[in-house]
Amino acid sequence: MNDSVYERILENPRFHELVAKRSRFAWLLSAAMLGLYLVFILLIAFAPQLLGVRISPDSVITWGIPLGVGLILSAFILTGIYVYRANGEFDSLNKAILDEVQP
């Protein structure tokens, strides 16, 4: 691509829409992940006895283990959600923008 194509992309209103949507969505998912981590850390700091309770009386596993694993899995799930939307809506917007600005 040459400089004139880049300029047309930067001036395209759909490009600004793409950037705004993608940024907003990324910040939303980042805030969700940060919130989950914050809750987990606050539980560790202020209510460690809750995480130390066994799942059942004869179990050696405490509630802290599945909550920690769930926190890790939530990162994978949120990443998957982002990839799904990026490969769908964001890629189609990107292709439309490129189709408009190509000579």
Describe the structure.
There is one protein chain. With 103 residues, the chain is mainly α. It has one domain. The protein has helices at 3-11, 13-46, 48-51, 64-101. The chain is rod-shaped and about 70 Å long. The mean pLDDT is 93.
Give the biggest sheet.
none
* Approximate shape: rod-shaped
Strand % is under 5%
The total strand number stands at 0
Mean pLDDT: 93
Contiguous low-pLDDT stretches (5 residues minimum) are none
SSE class: mainly alpha
Q: What would the keywords be for this entry?
A:
4 helices, mainly alpha, single chain, 103 residues
What is the element layout, followed by pairings?
Elements: H1 3-11, H2 13-46, H3 48-51, H4 64-101
Brief digest:
This protein has 103 residues and is mainly α. Helix content is 83%, strand content 0%. The radius of gyration is 22 Å and the shape is rod-shaped.
